[in-house]
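Example record used in the benchmark description.
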Amino acid sequence: MCSEILRDVNKYLATRGLRISTGTIVDATIVHAPSSTKNEAKARDPEMRQTRKANQWYFGMKADIGVDSKTRLIHAVAATAANALDSTVLEDLLHGDEIQVWGDQAYSGQREVIR
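Model output (structure tokens):
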């Protein structure tokens, strides 16, 4: 549902002259949740996981984002478990017309996906 809303917002912005250019910046951020969070069934959400970043442990999910390099508009979002590798959703964060893609070390070695 979120991707459909984002698609509609981007279409609307395009009608106002704001369009996605040919470069994308990709990155991910951890969406932290308390480890004691339980759902209605009194169990942890099966989509949330634990991960370590800079010797700090986190429990939750990860938001992976594709941002237009020129307008800084978000054009793609993917949600994964916190322990998922950033590179696993790279293809979902690209619109396909990129000439350049920027990302941190987590996306290195992904030339085939970018092509």
